[in-house]
Design goal:
The complex is a heterodimer of chains A (about 350) and B (about 725). Chain A folds into 2 domains: about 25-130 and about 255-310, 3-Layer(aba) Sandwich (D-Maltodextrin-Binding Protein, domain 2); about 130-250 and about 325-340, 3-Layer(aba) Sandwich (D-Maltodextrin-Binding Protein, domain 2), CATH 3.40.190.10. Helices cover about 45% and strands about 15% of the residues of chain A. Chain A is built from 14 helices and 11 strands. In chain A, strands 1, 2, 3, 4, 5, 6, 7, 8, 9, 10 and 11 form an 11-stranded mixed beta sheet that branches. In chain A, strand 1 (about 30-35), helix 2 and strand 2 (about 55-60) form a beta-alpha-beta unit. Chain B is mostly helical and about 725 residues long. Among the domains of chain B are: about 1-145, no CATH class; about 215-385 and about 440-475, MetI-like (MetI-like fold, Orthogonal Bundle), CATH 1.10.3720. Chain B has 32 helices and 8 strands. Chain B has a two-stranded antiparallel sheet. In chain B, strands 3-4 form a two-stranded antiparallel ribbon. In chain B, a hairpin with a 3-residue loop joins strand 7 and strand 8. In chain B, helix 27 (about 590-610) packs antiparallel against helix 30. The two termini of chain B are about 40 Å apart. Classes of the chains: A alpha/beta (about 350), B mainly alpha (about 725).
């Protein structure tokens, strides 16, 4: 048995040695990726093939990435932050975590993507756009004999009591976008009245933004308020989900990309940023069949199953106002106080 | 003694004069620098000290000062003073320069105006580590030769090493986090904003008592913690008694069943529960079909969390309790039987009181685990909010409010502190010694009928429920889509773990899971031995020696366990992203995080077992002139084998399945299994997640068996021995 112990000990030392190697190294781009892991992998493989630059990629949600970048600010370890909803990118830009850069593909981008760059003083840029909406479980709806919802207003119908799920705006950017969208469509007073009426029908405020539609897909809830591309994805994987784009019009998110300030590989980071916005790269990612958002570059091809922006009534979402930290905390506090505390 | 001193001076000099002082790019332990040696990159500190980093020079003084003791005779007092002074000077100066001068020169403006500009420096490397170790040795040797703790080098050294390591890897990061949280980017938060965060309805509201609105988060958390701790201790005790004290036929199966949940990656149990008991779950469907019970979402909320947590934490309480139960000497029970006690009286007045330290520790662990648990409340919580999830989303959610997270973490910590205090009060100062070294033989008393019935009626069904859940999980790996499309397929296994054979490169690991899988495995294997060693050593120091600040020290070792993983992860980045200790992005930071996070289990298990060992055993050994190190190694350790196994198994398993702490610490090269699984679950890729989890479970089971082979069994008296799977000790 002693021999076993010794062998084990030697092995441990050997492996300990190999584990002390840091990931970040020169000439080796580090990307924090906040879209789905498969999409990240397609993106990174494509970039390696195109440029020959080695990439170390870590997948984390946008909130996690933002928290990590803030903690690493004195000695940044990442170079580029790719993907994730636009708000945390704006916040990162406003607290000086990201680097100013205007891509050569800037003029080809959708207005929303360009605005993201303008609001952030070019410290961030839009890479895709996704519209808000909701999805419902077709089987459950039929089984319960419920009417087919078509608009935001339909969701406050008492027949849906206990059938709707949305995320908690305190923890999810998706839900915050929903809140801001409603207030922009209906105005301040009516908007809050809507949220209160909706509250009565909600069975649970989930923590994560896309959880409601997954619960709907599993049959745990009937309706889930999410981004349309998330709902479409469930539908595409064969689950009984139908996607609704509310008739009153709807808000949207601008998935963004930022270069991290103080990046160790600034040159490679900029190469990456330009490449990621190029028509080729955008087509590669957004027609891969797993990313159903609309590409920011107008010359790129998107997925045929993706929601078509021209068919969706988009409101002119005011990112400057509602992305602002003060507006955000004001809205969230009001939601906490006036809505989430109400009895159902 | 002289030999040890010379040895340490040699080690310290190696650090200053020969080995690379700073962290080298290819890693801390890498030896490639030997082949491409360049002074600028791989130089020892003396090289830098004589060129542009002059501030390193003063370190040489205290390092070589004690050499004079080898040439001159000195009184005991001078001897200890010289070591003490050299040690303290070296130690303090080492950290002073490390924290004052960082990656961009001076870290604080005030020094720059005082001393002018300086060169920058990087994270410490192997040379610096050896040097600081030598200073710590000087310090403890000085204290020991002064007569501290009977002049015992081993004890004084161990205490200081534990204190210093816990300070560096637990206290400082946490303190750092709190300080940053309160001194936010907008300057120091006012007391008003603190009290606003601390006193609000969301935390302390009691509305649920008289209406159907949710109560405050604090009450929710407390209710959940107490319920879970209670039920898991209860069931853990049942399982332990079933296995140690009954002749139940399927003991072995139950032993495996009872520990299965801890070797299950998080979220998987929650998912299985939803698929069984959720609104569209199998059970609900059956109830609707058979009894016309309307489907409901009852599983979301406290009931679901409680259920899942009890399932998940019973194994932990079981591991603590079985060690304790098996250590109880049959002689006492026999004595009481001889005095004509009934079976019930024996159980109530002898057996049960002797289990108390185990119960108390199990309860405390269950409580803390429940409070720190994040996966189950996330999946099954519904609108039932608890502190751990609130803290996580305060950090990474849409609010980015670290101050709120810090306030919530303080509340969580206080709850643990109170639980810890209550536990100590309940245990009191009674003696729980039952391993005395005196001959003991005989058989355990039979359990009273009522206890046996309870075990059969409660524990056995619970075990079966566990079995069903695990069969469900395994089943999920072989179907197209769990819960939706139940056609048989092997595609998930092929996707995750395929291996192809290529003529040019030989075996090719083509499955998507291999990379994170092997990483996770090796990180867990490497983290387990130091965790157990550190935990048991700490337990020994705490139970056998008295020193100042012992209670505070004990609580300090529990801290890292009670703090939510998210906070630990973020605070590790804050603290270890910049020199002197710059380890973010390496695999080492994962290992360190696991060691210090899981150490408390070793401490708890160690303390519970140690309370049963008669101190006379130590004394006998000391009387025979054994040093305290020899006593520890030859007497205590062999008797603690169950505790060692428990902490090894636990730390290995936790390192394989941890999630919240490592979200921020994983990097592209060091990705871990749980973050892979979480990613798949987010994608509705249940099949892949389950396949991966099943593979993890199998690997963990095998490893646990190997751990037992390595540690071996404890032999106590002449009690009947049997091999058992999870504990490897005698019964």
């Amino acid at each position: 048995m002693n021999k076993l112990k010794k062998i084990f000990f030697v092995f441990s030392l050997l492996f300990l040695a190999s584990y002390a190697v840091p990931t970040y190294a020169k000439g080796n781009l580090t990307v924090y990726c906040s879209v789905e892991i498969e999409v990240c992998e397609i993106l990174i493989q494509g970039f390696k093939k195109e440029t020959g630059i080695d990439v170390a990629m870590t997948r984390k949600s946008s909130g996690e990435t933002f928290a990590q970048m803030k903690a690493e600010a004195t000695n940044p370890k990442g170079d580029v932050w790719y993907g994730g909803t636009g708000d945390p990118h704006l916040t990162a830009a406003s607290v000086g975590l990201t680097e100013k850069y205007k891509s050569k593909h800037f003029n080809d981008l959708l207005t929303a993507a360009q605005n993201q760059a303008k609001f952030s003083d070019y410290k961030s840029v839009g890479i895709y756009v996704g519209a808000l909406g909701y999805g419902y479980n077709t089987n459950l709806l039929k089984e319960k004999g419920l009417p087919v919802p078509k608009s935001w207003a339909d969701l406050t119908n008492p027949v849906y009591k206990g059938e709707i799920q949305m995320a908690n705006p305190n923890s999810s950017g998706t839900a915050y976008t929903t809140l801001a969208t409603i207030i922009q469509i209906l105005g301040d007073d009516k908007g809050w009245d809507f949220m209160k009426a909706l509250h009565k029908n909600i069975n649970q405020y989930t923590k994560s933004g896309s959880a409601p539609i997954k619960a709907a897909a599993k049959g745990e809830t009937t309706i889930g308020i999410v981004f349309q591309h998330d709902a479409t994805k469930q539908k595409k994987s064969g689950l009984p989900i139908a996607v609704v784009s509310p008739t009153e019009g709807t808000g949207f998110e601008v998935g963004s990309m930022s270069i991290i300030k103080g990046a160790r590989n600034m040159k490679e980071a900029k190469i990456f940023a330009d490449w990621a916005l190029s028509p080729a790269a955008q087509t590669l990612v957004f027609s891969s069949g797993i990313s159903l958002q609309v590409p920011a570059n107008t010359k790129a091809k998107g997925d045929p199953d993706a929601p078509v922006l021209s068919k969706i009534k988009l409101i002119s979402y005011d990112f400057e106002k509602y992305g602002n930290k003060d507006t955000r905390s004001k809205l969230l506090r009001k939601w906490d106080k006036d809505v989430s505390n109400l009895p159902k | 003694m002289r030999k040890i001193v010379i040895g340490w001076i040699f080690i310290g000099s190696l650090g200053v004069f020969i080995l690379p002082w700073y962290m080298i790019n290819d890693g801390f332990f890498s030896f490639s620098w030997l082949f491409e040696y360049e002074l600028e990159n791989y130089g020892p500190s003396i090289f830098f000290a004589l060129s542009e980093k002059k501030w390193l020079l003063p370190l040489v003084g205290p390092l070589i000062f004690p050499i004079i003791l080898l040439f001159f005779k000195s009184s005991r007092r001078t001897y200890s003073n010289i070591f003490l002074i050299s040690g303290i000077l070296g130690f303090v100066y080492f950290f002073l320069q490390g924290y004052a001068i960082g990656i961009r020169g001076w870290n604080y403006q005030i020094f720059e105006t005082l001393f002018g500009e300086v060169d920058r420096q990087f994270g410490i490397g192997i040379g610096a580590v050896l040097t600081i170790s030598t200073f710590i040795f000087y310090l403890t040797h000085g204290l020991a030769s002064r007569g501290w703790l009977n002049g015992d080098n081993f004890i004084v050294g161990s205490i200081w090493v534990v204190i210093i390591l816990v300070s560096i890897f637990v206290f400082i990061p946490i303190l750092n986090m709190f300080v940053r949280a309160f001194i936010g980017s907008e300057g120091i938060h006012t007391l008003a904003s603190f009290s606003d965060r601390f006193i609000n309805k969301g935390l302390w509201g009691l509305d649920c008592v008289f209406s159907n609105v949710n109560c405050g988060v604090v009450w929710n958390t407390l209710t959940m913690g107490i319920l879970t701790a209670f039920s898991s201790t209860f069931l853990g005790l049942g399982f332990a008694l079933l296995i140690a004290r009954t002749n139940f036929k399927f003991k072995k199966l139950f032993k495996v069943l009872s520990v299965l949940p801890i070797i299950t990656p998080p979220f998987v149990i929650g998912l299985a529960i939803i698929i069984l008991f959720g609104r569209s779950g199998a059970v609900s469907t059956f109830l609707e079909w058979g009894f016309e019970v309307e489907r409901s979402r009852w599983i979301y909320g406290l009931s679901g969390i409680w259920f899942a947590q009890t399932l998940a934490f019973t194994p932990i309480t079981f591991l603590v309790l079985i060690g304790v139960i098996e250590s109880i000497s049959p002689s006492m029970e026999e004595a009481s039987q001889t005095l004509r006690a009934s079976k019930w009286q024996v159980f109530k007045t002898v057996t049960f009181p002797l289990i108390r330290p185990g119960l108390a520790n199990a309860f405390l662990l269950g409580f803390i685990e429940s409070l720190a648990d994040f996966g189950n409340p996330l999946v099954l919580g519904g609108d039932y909010n608890v502190l751990s999830t609130e803290i996580f989303f305060a950090v990474v959610g849409a609010q980015y409010d670290e101050s709120k997270a810090a306030v919530l973490a303080i509340i969580l910590l206080s709850m643990v502190l109170i639980a810890f205090y209550v536990q100590n009060q309940w245990l009191g100062k009674k003696s729980y010694v039952s391993i005395t070294g005196k001959g003991d033989s005989g058989f355990y008393a039979e359990l009273p009928k009522s206890v046996k019935n309870f075990i059969y009626f409660v524990v056995v069904p619970w075990g079966l429920l566990t079995l069903i859940i695990y069969l469900m999980i395994m089943f999920g790996g072989f179907v197209e889509m769990w819960g939706v499309d139940h056609n048989f397929t092997l595609k998930h296994y092929i996707n995750a773990f395929s291996v192809t054979f290529d003529e040019k490169i030989g075996l090719h690991w083509t499955g998507t899971a291999w990379n994170s899988f092997s990483n996770t495995f090796w990180v867990a294997v490497l983290a387990a031995p130091p965790t157990a060693a550190f935990g048991i050593l700490t337990a020994y120091l705490l139970t056998r020696h008295n020193f100042m600040g012992k209670r505070a020290f004990e609580f300090g070792t529990m801290l890292s366990f009670a703090i939510p993983g998210t906070i630990i992860g973020i605070s590790y980045i804050f603290t270890f992203n910049t020199p002197p200790i710059e380890i973010t992005g390496t695999g080492i930071i994962l290992i360190i995080a696991f060691v210090f996070r899981n150490m408390p289990v070793g401490v708890r298990a160690g303390i519970a077992s140690m309370n049963q060992l008669d101190p006379h055993l130590d004394e006998a050994s000391a009387t025979l002139n054994a040093s305290s190190y020899q006593t520890f190694k030859n007497i205590i350790l062999p008797l603690l084998k169950p505790a060692i196994i428990a902490s090894l198994v636990f730390s290995f398993v936790r390192a394989m399945t941890a999630i919240s702490a490592v979200i921020f610490l994983v990097s592209a090269r060091y990705d871990l299994a749980t973050s892979y699984i979480l990613g798949r679950l987010e994608n509705n890729d249940y099949g892949l997640a389950i396949v991966y989890s099943s593979a993890l479970i199998v690997v963990m089971l095998i490893t646990i068996v190997v751990i037992q082979l390595i540690v071996g069994r404890r032999k106590l008296g002449r009690r009947d021995q049997y091999v058992d799977l999870m504990q490897g000790n005698s019964g």
